[in-house]
Amino acid sequence: MNSINLAFAPALEQANLVRQREISPLELVELYLHRIEQFNGQLGSYVTVAAEQAIADAKAKTEAIAHSTDDLPPFFGVPISIKDLNAVAGLPCAYGVKLLKKRIATEDDGVVTRIKQAGFILLGKTATSEVGTLPYTEPDGFPPARNPWHLDYTPGGSSGGAAAAVAAGLCAIAQGSDGGGSIRGPASCCGLVGIKPSRGRVTHAPYGDRLSGISTSGPIGRTVADAAALLDVMSGYTTGDPYWLPDPATSFLSATQAPLGQLRIAFATTIDPVGTADAPCQQAVLNTVQLLQSLGHVVEPGCPDVGDLIEPFTIVWQSVLSEAGIPFIFLGKMNRWLLNRSRFQSSGKYLRAVSKMQIIARRIVTFFDTVDVLVLPTYLHTTIRVGEWAQLRPAQTMANIIGWVAPCPPFNATGQPVITIPAGFDPRGLPIGVQLIGRPAAEATLITLAAQLEAANPWSQHRPPFPSKD
């Protein structure tokens, strides 16, 4: 296998190659560090490269595997990236804020601990939008993250660096987080698989949940199996978690091979009152519907009413800026505007918004009493150019954001699982994804269905034109 094919190989395949001693952890890490050195300057996908730590870990793992391959953790020796909203002990954790570039984390997030225990080698921290609030990754004081399918365009946000890194072959797989579409949007923009798990599936340890249950970590990968296997690694209760789910009866990876009976599936291309998806995103949904029907599923139009969720969700979502405690002067224009808005929120207004959001969420989940899965566009239009909204007034940018990401936040509010899968390309050659939304705690059903769609219409063979050289 040549170096380019190895860089784009699924993480599970890399793990097997390591286990069979056909490739060493050190060779894998050196391959990715070389590609990061070559291409990250143009992509802006990593904000911190942990080269020394990664090489030291890879050397230790290479030495260990020379003596025995017994009882290795599932991803022993496979390189991964961590989003810069999550702490890794000994590395900077800036949250996309230039003031915090030199802030060194003193302990690992719980999800990072689980990733390390699975045998992964951490390559570094990937770019996020400032404080993770925006669906494009252009924080002040950092280079913008760019889409490897076309460098003029954004890879989305806030996990834009993670998705760009995976899509460009700068890591095998990535950890991201999603508080309003921040895994699903970048996965859609970059032609990848992204899973927003159910509320309580992945721990927030050792910290608290800052956003009333709307955010969670999750995987971004090239294949359904990779994403499912990383979700297995990330999942599980940690003592004191405010939300939790029982462990599934079988692994999420095994769900990719599970039989699947006929499902009742709804679909829509309009999110009232925001608007209708543009033609390429509509067609991606309709193509998926046609494929689902050919696979024997019952598919009919339908969508829950989510229109009155915008106001309470926005109140909860923008409150993270007040909670973060970052001085106004050190934030970018859009976040300063959001912080000013949140300053005028009383605690009572916040709690009323949480209550209203939960009431609407109950209504949305009721829709799934008669439906197994809902298919929606991930975003209502294809990706935007880097800096496209930079000169707009914040209120107009906010309206544009809502008009773009509207299909995503309702399912952060409900805590339902969602998987975004590739569903084609727009006329510019930029990827488009669709969302499969499931019943609460029903990740396994979504993973099985996504694997069925992947088998019928494979996508992991597609690679972006950048980078095209070794």
Quick tags:
Amidase signature (AS) enzymes; globular; single chain; 470 residues; three-stranded mixed β-sheet; 13 strands; eight-stranded mixed β-sheet; alpha+beta
List the helices and strands and how they pair.
Layout: H1 3-7, H2 11-19, H3 25-43, E1 46-49, H4 51-67, E2 79-83, H5 110-117, E3 121-126, H6 160-167, E4 174-178, H7 184-190, E5 193-196, E6 216-221, H8 224-234, H9 252-255, E7 264-267, E8 270-271, E9 275-276, H10 279-294, E10 298-301, H11 310-318, H12 320-324, H13 333-343, H14 347-366, E11 373-377, H15 394-405, H16 410-414, E12 418-425, E13 431-438, H17 443-456
Parallel strand pairs: 2-3, 7-10, 7-11
Antiparallel strand pairs: 1-3, 4-6, 5-6, 5-12, 8-9, 11-13, 12-13
Helix pairs in contact: 3-4, 6-7, 11-14, 13-15
Structure in words:
- It is a single chain.
- With 470 residues, the chain is α+β, with helices and mostly antiparallel strands.
- Helices cover 38% and strands 13% of the residues.
- A hairpin with a 5-residue loop joins β12 (418-425) and β13.
- The protein has a single domain (3-456), classed as Amidase signature (AS) enzymes (Alpha-Beta Complex).
- It is globular, with a radius of gyration of 21 Å.
- It has an eight-stranded mixed sheet, with helices on both faces. Strands 1-3-2 form a three-stranded mixed sheet. It has a two-stranded antiparallel ribbon with strand order 8-9.
- α6 runs parallel beside α7 (184-190) and α13 (333-343) crosses α15.
